[in-house]
Design a protein that fits this description.
mainly alpha, 6 helices, 59% helix, binds zinc ion
Amino acid sequence: MNKADHVINAVILSIGVGVLLAPGMNQSPYSAIILVGVPIVIGALFPDIDTEFGTHRETFHNIVTLAVFIAFPIYFENLFFVWIGILTHYVLDLLGTKGGLALFYPVTKHVSVPVGVNVDSSLARLVTLAVTAFELGVVWLLVEYGYGSLLRAPGVWNLFTSTF
Ligand SMILES: [Zn+2]
């Protein structure tokens, strides 16, 4: 996806996640949106740094980058939600490009899905909004069924390390 779609996805996701997590975090919805939104937007913009440094959709579009951003909050007690931005960037690039991304870099073989649309497609914005809605649905389900803590870095780290 292009930068505008990543920003639109991150901002809507931030508002939704903030509102959904606010009660559990004892925050007003407004402060919760800032608390989760700043890290999510930072995470959503980070991977495309590899357009300038490294190889695009390889160097910073992979499992290792995601792991670093899940581990960072645990070591530095900061940016607990930044990994959500990284992950949603990958999802949008999987569905919003034809070429996919090198999820298992330095193995440079790109992972892609057959239903992806091209970045320049007129459907790209629609795909972005559909992905965002789907992601918010997942977040809503997690919160509704008491798994909201998985969205914060230590929770997802345990899940991630038991998967990989
Ligand atoms: Zn990207």
